[in-house]
Design a protein that fits this description.
- This protein has helices at residues 33-45, 79-83, 91-107, 148-151, 159-162, 169-185, 195-204, 214-223, 234-246, 252-311, 413-418, 438-457; strands spanning 9-15, 21-27, 58-61, 68-73, 77-78, 111-112, 121-124, 127-130, 137-138, 316-320, 326-332, 335-341, 361-368, 373-381, 389-397, 426-434.
- Helix 3 packs antiparallel against helix 6 (169-185) and helix 6 packs antiparallel against helix 8 (214-223).
- It has two domains: 77-246, Orthogonal Bundle (Transferase(Phosphotransferase), domain 1), CATH 1.10.510.10; 288-457, no CATH class.
- The strands form four sheets. Strands 10-11-12-13-14-15-16 form a seven-stranded antiparallel sheet. Strands 1-2-4-3 form a four-stranded antiparallel sheet, covered by helices on one side. A three-stranded antiparallel sheet has the order 5-7-8.
- 38% of the residues lie in helices and 20% in strands.
- The radius of gyration is 27 Å and the shape is elongated.
- It is of the alpha+beta class.
Length: 469
């Protein structure tokens, strides 16, 4: 046997007819549906040219034993073998590994791996390739969960897997984020050690990633977000990783009538129960999104205050209140900057229905000077589709006090209509600016440090035009 046996079988050395070394995975007889899934994947990929998915050379039943088997090329090593050397990878090397795995996830297209881990990433032809699709399935297929909980790899299983909810491509993104954190630190993202410990940690404990540059830490933290919708999709992961490289989910009428009524009541009850279950799942997801958003906005506020202190050591910085409801206040000369954390912590799901945004929570950033005050709204939203993240925008109106615009608005009718395709007294001063990636966060800090600098000198003034963009 090559290496340790897996949950569904063991891998043995073999030789192809032309003398080439191969690896033969012999599946256990007692794994049932798991064998069917792995053979289904083999059938879909046999002979298919891939760059980052281990090729399937052949598959079928062994004539001698009747056991199902899959034939693949012999790999040089697994990513687990590399990690077992005890040394963490340099950031550039770790990013290259993540890029190759992510490209493998793109190559399998509609398949969800569901068990991505270092043991299932193999080195072949001088690049890392994904293997072992024992519990993989097509993204639109349904699979019994009876055996899957026992098949999870605890250090890399996403919260939705622990909860028995449907896995999606976001599940693989989560596992890839866990792998990335381990590559950089040399140890798993969560320590376990027992299965119940892992379940609690993946569901409720905030990830602690301190190794690596700010950009890769930011990406990994978003990849291991508790709510699946908050994670970037695989394409976005590849794009951001490559960007970092480039710049270091009865009878008779009465009985008949009564029977019809009972059936209708049962149907209505079932629908109500399903709606209630869905509403509860969404409520839980929203609570998780708020918690994740507060972590991110607090980190952004800490970064902004640290950069202000670096360039203006004499600035007076005060932190007040408790989360949610904290704020950071900075005084420098005649200027004052305020950024809140959790100011609008529980925004109703329909608060921005007309513009199509699903705003989960919001905050405010303000720069004041004796002559002029400028502010903006910070919303944690999905802007009507895709992943959730923080954006900055501001508002203006012809009917109000123009000396205080652009300005923030509380969640509600005005902020909703300002972003909608309707005529309204309030409008966007500039389109929403994302502040999720390292570059975006840096631009945010530079922008508001510039406003604070102008306020400190007494030169902060109303923009020359509205909207600004």
């Amino acid at each position: 046997m090559l290496g340790r046996p897996g949950g569904f079988g063991g891998v043995h050395p073999g030789t192809a007819e032309d003398g080439t070394p191969v690896a033969i995975k012999i599946l256990r007889r007692d794994i049932g549906d798991a064998a069917h899934r792995e053979l289904e994947f083999a059938r879909a990929f046999v002979g298919r040219a891939t760059q980052h998915v281990m090729p399937v050379l052949d598959f079928g039943q062994d004539a001698a034993t009747g056991q199902s088997c899959i034939v693949m090329p012999r790999a040089d090593m697994s990513l687990r073998d590399r990690l077992n050397t005890g040394a963490a990878l340099q950031e550039a090397d770790a990013i290259q590994v993540l890029v190759e795995i992510a490209r493998g996830l793109l190559e399998v297209e509609d398949w969800v791996h569901r068990d991505l881990k270092p043991e299932n990433v193999l080195r072949y032809r001088d690049r890392w390739q994904i293997a072992d699709f024992g519990i993989a399935r097509l993204a639109d297929a349904s699979t019994s969960l009876r055996t899957l909980k026992g098949a999870l790899s605890p250090p890399y299983a996403a919260p939705e897997q622990w909860d028995g909810r449907r896995a999606s491509h976001a599940t693989d993104v989560y596992a890839l984020g866990c792998i990335g954190a381990e590559l950089l630190s040399g140890r798993p993202l969560y320590p376990g050690p027992a299965v119940d410990d892992y379940a609690e940690q993946h569901r409720r404990i905030s990830p602690h990633i301190t190794v690596g540059s700010p950009r890769i830490r930011s990406l990994l933290l978003r990849m291991v977000a508790k709510p699946a919708p908050a994670r970037p999709d695989i394409e976005a992961v590849v794009a951001e990783l490559t960007s970092i490289q480039a710049r270091p989910n009865g009878s008779g009428p009465g009985a008949a009538a009564l029977g019809e009524a009972a059936a209708a009541v049962a149907d209505a009850t079932a629908r109500a129960e399903a709606a209630q279950a869905e509403a509860e799942a969404k409520r839980i997801q929203r609570v998780q999104l708020v918690a994740h958003a507060l972590t991110e906005i607090s980190s952004l506020a800490e970064r902004l205050s640290a950069e202000i202190k670096e360039y203006a050591p004499q600035a007076n910085i005060r932190w007040t209140g408790n989360s949610p409801g904290r704020s950071c206040e900075v005084e420098l000369g005649s200027g004052r900057l305020i950024i809140t954390m959790g100011h609008f912590a529980n925004i109703p799901p329909d608060a921005f229905a007309d513009c199509g945004w699903d705003v989960v929570c919001g905050d405010i950033i303000i720069v004041e000077s004796p002559r002029y005050t400028r502010s903006a709204s910070l919303w944690y939203t999905n802007l009507g589709g895709g992943s959730y993240g923080w954006v900055e925008t501001a508002y203006w109106t012809l009917s109000g006090d123009s000396s205080k615009t652009p300005c923030y608005l509380p969640p509600g009718r005005d902020a909703n209509f300002a972003a909608a395709h309707v005529m309204h007294s309030w409008n966007l001063a500039y389109p929403p600016r994302a502040i999720e990636t390292e570059e975006q966060a840096d631009a945010f800090c530079q922008r508001w440090m510039n406003f604070l600098g102008q306020a400190a000198r007494g030169t902060l003034a109303h923009p020359g035009r509205m909207p600004e963009e």
